[in-house]
TrEMBL record, chains A, B, C, D:
InterPro entries: L-rhamnose_isomerase, Rhamnose_iso-rel, Xyl_isomerase-like_sf. This is L-rhamnose isomerase. Keywords: Isomerase, Manganese, Metal-binding. It comes from the Bacteria. It comes from Agrococcus terreus.
Length: 386, 386, 386, 386
């Protein structure tokens, strides 16, 4: 029953890739290094550009401040443009300074809240230089022990801090506010769920939107429901894509539960969010043990396959089955789209755009990995600096 | 460091008990009957009155429509008053009619939504007769299979249905809207989390509030955070108390994780919700294998102990430790209140009110259970009618 | 890279269907009835035979005692054979008698353990009449409240009870022992995990094997690991197939996470369990809202598709990638098999066996559902009798 | 109904503390340092000795190889003895070398398995020098992606590797084998549950026992059941104590769910494991944000309080209630022990042994923290070296 997506529909897919995915990441037990790992933002952007060059899907690169601070933003911007990509979302970081041990925007001490707010004002300044639209705020804030701090007062301080940052945005800026179930805080997290992010965004105004990271939910959470709800409320600003079996595992998107990714994309399309620049699709993953650039290529391809399957859905048949209350048929119509092997269609689509039919094989054959392993000797490999 | 709660503080505790806890309940595998189980609402109210008579904590009884429909509401009301209690919240039920197999207020068919709305209008009518303030809406609505129905359209239909019911409320009525993670729907639930209940209540207006059932969350959810957040937003209308190890186990409140119950009450007090009639405390449990009236007595006593411990908290010391950033001390101050054995204080408090020091022993010695087992022969024992 | 399964490989698939799936089932909130629901074991077997007639995959029917007790076992056996199927596993039931409220084989009272053991001896007697090989033991035993009973003593009583039942088995009989994380017990379950089932089976002897029900695990459990481990230990006796998003939802197998089902089958094949009559594949599901016979057809087809995908795996390429430590390539080889659309192959395979290419459409067009809805008037529809 | 534990019963408590708890630890996001953090094993042992000096509960210190490698084991041993403690369990480490990126004892390459086995043989050598009895094996081994490696073959390689290590043990040595649900592996872990650890230990022999880390289970797992089962099987070798709300949070034991800790100790006592030197109690925690030595003191006190409560249990009353099938009474007897405030009793007990009544206040008043902050300038603070 599946229908065939048009080329125009497939063309609307845009995925932002994160600069930090090309640096080293790991667990608290170990961060493994790899030959060729970038040592600065310029090399990260170069790696990111490879993903776009081979897939045509990843035209922008998200930056993380201070990890990606450079002296000359114009140079980084031109570097990106020369490589065929653009700079994207600016991510703030208030979890790697000793001052933030017990919180940042929610901290009980005004001095530390001030510092954290100022960091965000600095990020907004960077946005003006990079031409970025979105300031992404993910907070590690929370507590580890019952009683440690006042849950309620931290909410009030959070609201106050966010309001000051929001007021500093330009008119064409957005603040996108991420929630996370737990980690690195292990008792309570100050923005633990979509509801909390939503009520803060609603209080801030139109330029504030919720970020849904697919790895940031309690076990069993129906993520596509949240997608549908936030689209309905006009408050879904961005996705952070990755996948998980347990906690915030940060595996490649689609690796753990490809059917879930498909269902998420189905709701994204149904709610009008697909292809809407106001609903940004971003990767946020950790390639702890797998090769990084190939890991990113696999990830954008996984999203593309999910999109192609979701676009194959026979929505008229689905609607009819739903109206008839035919549970099995409605499920079958959905599964029919999911069961469709869209890879031949996508290979053809790529060829029609002058892209390699098999981006992974093409990239591996390009010699890029060998080249960077040889060229990037010395220096300090980029990482989270934990 | 713990402080001693005053009698006046302890006196502010009021817990509503549910009529259906005195009838039979069970699992999908088996509902076990017990001698003496009530056969009608009058007998349920009589059992409920025993809880209040022995504890002084449970002055009102929640009713469930249609389970508790009677011909003469005045008679039921007077019956309750004669026994020292009053009728409380009216609970609607749209999960036990064949028409509701695929939904009620969210159903794709207008006819069935109409029927479900009308049922709620009938409940509002009952409220006028019972003198109840609150209409509690818990929906079993959801789907079992991906694709079965449109998540998004069901939200829109839900909003529309709720709006019609809300419009029918009297000025002194409230609609309290419950959320639940899953069950009986196993793929998606139409009101699965506090965020969804909140956005509907916010859209409806001041008379709509969220109900937090302590058993209705994903594993690991920090429930006291939600308490703090909803109190901050002015939208916490009521609790449904029970406890759980796994899913919605509906065990006696405080049985599975007494420390969690304590933390919940701490946030309730901190946020100004304790003793506030606008934040109703209600039991909602299933005494599948334990004796029912004693199970209810144990439950209200568990809440009372948690309240007494929470009132023992040295909030000045806690605040000082928090301001100093002393994680261990702040935690210790909280644990100190929790570790306090409040049972002697509560026994004394009860004695001062003319109540039995040990309500459980007093009730068991009263012969009530033996009397109802003998008197309530014949007829059909009340239950969920699943 | 995927390879094409041979017809002979596909032919090794056999799935046992459960008699109780054709009767009514539901949740504690409601059991919805359907026109045409069987009223006795003969009608259940007739429905089950439809599944086999249209798919060629379900040659045996599991029975549940006492639900399926009949006076004349020879008649039921011949009835089944006339319809092209055979009677299969005998399931005991010690959860629906008032005596079992606090346990059965683990009960503190010898009288009740005796009764539960005797029930199993009766089941073994039935096996002799039905020609069944397997006695399946799933226990609802457990406790709801900490302290309620001794976890340790219940283990010892369980071991003793099982030993007596095991001793009564004929040489060609097996006892297959199921574990379950929780429900209907909500604090502790006496056989909660594979480890517990395994240690009892190991103590009993060669004729005792573990049953893995795919819905009976904690959130996040890697089920294919357990499959691999039990096959390695020679102790995997049977599967109970179904699927879940939350708890023991008992949805159609493959509905919630088709990729997980695929991974399970991959391990089944890798460990030599596929096609081995000693590793029985059985459905155990509840069609609460969907049509029952079609629900069973969909389920066996879901398993067949997972098997065909798993048989498509290029194991040589996989092995090479693993030996090279190429994480992404090994994953890609696996995903390649999963992404393959095996439906055309299976349609062809069916046609070659004289089966309908699309079993679901063929069944729906057969008029069977309409016929039973008309014929099966009056009487009491079969169900769990909760 | 609670009874009063005797001094002799309380005296049987011994808790081993881990050297690495005094060094820095954190999350993948950040490791926060603290003034005074030890820079070598001698300073770690000195800190550990403070815990014992103030509580009398922690007479031994576990070491981690290679973190705690020293040139002169005799010197470290004497250093410990001078401070009133002894060296305890030796922990191996096969997760911080680049070679172990894809596994250690389970690795597909024989060379890396050899290296990992040799590391354990080195650890056994250390045991001979430190006089340790236990070799604790926790493996980070597992995979992140489906297909990455063969689950089954890794089990076989694991069994082979463990057998070689086991064969090298002296007669008075033990191998204690830990399991963990997930992390740092995010798809499958090679020893994910007690069942897997048990089957390997059973195959190895009498000197192999299971380690139960209280933070290493799936959500909702009934840990006290596993305690009871392993004691029954004679295979519980040691505990790693900590607590958690979400994943392996490694919070202070008793901090997240003190009632669970109590239930665990109740089963430990009931099964004869309390005070048995063959069931070792060890802390394994991360003091990410709280002070480390005080965090350890709080932890051993939390265990002591749980033990005192569990020893307060009126087992005769409990047994009678269980035999009578009185669910509520049995639960009440247990809760009565839990509700008892044992702190006065423990203060008295400490005083009778010449220990400070309030170990935490005594330690904080001792000036030790100020002294080490001043003395331990320069050098590299100990940590996990991730």
């Amino acid at each position: 029953m599946a229908v065939t997506p048009t080329s125009a529909e497939l063309d609307r897919l845009r995925i932002e890739v994160p600069s930090w995915a090309y640096g080293n990441s790991g667990t608290r037990f170990r961060v493994f290094g790899t030959p060729g790992t970038p040592r600065d933002p310029f090399e990260k952007v170069a790696d990111a550009a490879q993903v776009h060059a081979h897939t045509g899907l990843a035209p922008t690169v998200a930056l993380h401040i201070p990890w990606d601070l450079v002296d000359d933003w114009g140079a980084l911007r031109r570097h990106a443009e020369d490589l065929g990509v653009a700079l994207g979302t600016i991510n703030s970081n208030t979890f790697q300074d000793d001052d933030y041990k017990l919180g940042s925007l929610t901290h009980v001490e005004p001095r530390i809240r001030r510092k954290a707010i100022d960091h965000h004002l600095q990020c907004i300044d960077v946005m003006r230089q990079t031409g970025s639209r979105d300031l992404k705020v993910w907070l590690a804030d929370g507590t580890n022990y019952p009683g440690q701090d006042s849950i309620r007062e931290r909410q009030d301080r959070l609201a106050e801090s966010l309001a000051e940052i929001y007021a500093a945005l330009d008119d064409d800026h957005r603040m996108v506010l991420e929630y996370k179930f737990f980690e690195p805080a292990f008792y309570h997290t100050d923005i633990p769920d979509w509801g909390t992010s939503y009520v803060h965004c609603a209080a801030l105004g139109e330029q504030a939107k919720v970020v849904l990271d697919t790895g940031h939910h309690a076990p069993g959470t129906n993520i596509e429901f949240i997608v549908a709800q936030l689209l309905r409320l006009g408050k879904l600003g961005a996705f952070d894509f990755n996948s998980r079996f347990y906690a915030d595992d940060d595996l490649m998107v689609g690796a753990a539960d490809p059917f879930q990714l498909f269902r998420i994309v189905v709701e994204l399309i149904a709610g009008g969010g697909y292809g809407d620049p106001d609903v940004q699709l971003v990767l946020d993953q950790c390639h702890n043990i797998e090769a990084k650039v190939p890991g990113q290529i696999r990830s954008v391809l996984n999203v593309q396959e999910a999109v192609a399957k979701a676009l194959s859905l026979d929505t008229a048949a689905l609607d009819a089955a739903r109206r008839a209350g035919d549970v099995l048929l409605a499920n079958e119509v959905l599964m029919d789209a999911y069961a469709t092997d869209v890879r031949p269609l996508l290979a053809e689509h790529r060829a029609s755009k002058g892209l390699p039919e098999d981006p992974m094989r093409a990239f591996l054959a390009s010699g890029y990995l060998e080249r960077i392993a040889e060229e990037r000797q010395g220096g300090v490999q980029a990482g989270w600096g934990a």
